[in-house]
Amino acid sequence: MPKLALITGASAGLGVDFAKELASFGHNLILVARRLDRLEALGEELGKKHGVAVHCVSCDLSSEEGCQKLLDVLKEKGLSPDILINNAGYGACGSYDQLSSENQMGMISLNVLALCWLTRQLLPDMLRRRQGYILNIASVAAFQPGPGMAVYFATKAFVLSFSEALHEEVLEHGVHVSCLCPGTTRTEFFSVAGAEHVPQAPGTMESLPVVRSGLNGLWANQAVIVPGWHNFITVQLNRLLPRFVVRKAAKMILLKRFLTQGNLS
């Protein structure tokens, strides 16, 4: 039976592939991002190809006004999503003292506050129906601190912890909550983060396999999804090694990658 899926950050990267994959199974879509032209182009493509209904909402979820705009559109159109893909987010490379407060507070607002807010708005209806699916996008960064990307790594740690807790809270109420923790993926993330010239890390994955892994885990109600053997090993090492070793290793790797590109000083 076709469902209605709301995807944030749907104008690029993982968001686009989530939309394509869900549409290919006949699910109707609500695409949310700032860039309306991209959303409309994607919506037109998927509507023609798969015969699904697509609603496009242009808003900035890092602001209260943007969040309220999305909620108003959902209420106005009588839309109650069965599937929520909390994909919107960004990172920034640089020393904590050098990145602007505006940049870092915006990151927290989008990566954490908007995700929590939207989940809180949609979860009650899912619980009443005793059916729903929530996929929060974190990162392997959630399992370690990130010198040089301190706030980004911290936001992803929050998303992981929040998702695991919520997974347990709703486990017996028919709602699936999963957290997808990909490693480096070929998207425009690094250009947004100001690190477009940074060499790709070992184990870098294409977007589509990550998306498929995430959705398969969500349908199976897997609490934490780590796609790719390289990422899985990285996560297990982070869990097993002493915290100070993980911290020092992260510093060495991140500063080596970003310092050579002039992103940190």
List the helices and strands and how they pair.
Elements (H helix, E strand, L loop, with lengths): L3 E5 L4 H12 L3 E6 L2 H15 L3 E5 L5 H14 L5 E4 L14 H29 L2 E6 L12 H20 L5 E6 L8 H4 L14 H13 L4 E2 L3 H12 L2 H17 L6
Parallel strand pairs: 1-2, 1-4, 2-3, 4-5, 5-6, 6-7
Helix pairs in contact: 1-2, 1-7, 4-5
Notes on the structure:
- The protein has 265 residues and is of the alpha/beta class.
- The protein has a single domain, classed as NAD(P)-binding Rossmann-like Domain (Rossmann fold), CATH 3.40.50.720.
- Helices cover 51% and strands 13% of the residues.
- The protein is built from nine helices and seven strands.
- The chain has a seven-stranded parallel beta sheet, with helices on both faces.
- Strand 4 (83-86), helix 4 and strand 5 (132-137) form a beta-alpha-beta unit.
- Helix 1 packs parallel to helix 2, helix 1 crosses helix 7 (207-219) and helix 4 (101-129) runs parallel beside helix 5 (150-169).
- The N and C termini lie far apart (54 Å).
- The model is unreliable at 189-195 and 260-265 (pLDDT under 50).
* SS class: alpha/beta
Mean pLDDT: 91
Beta strand %: 5-15%
Radius of gyration: 18 Å
- Multimeric status of the protein: single chain
Strand neighbour order, sheet with most strands: 3-2-1-4-5-6-7
Shape: globular
Question: CATH H level: which superfamily?
Answer: NAD(P)-binding Rossmann-like Domain
Look up the CATH topology: Rossmann fold
Q: What is the helix/strand order?
A: EHEHEHEHEHEHHEHH
Query: Would you report the number of β strands?
Result: 7
* N-to-C CA distance: 54 Å
Instruction: Note the main sheet.
Output: 7 strands, parallel
Number of helices: 9
Query: Helicity, in percent?
Result: 40-55%
How many structural domains in the coordinates?
Answer: 1
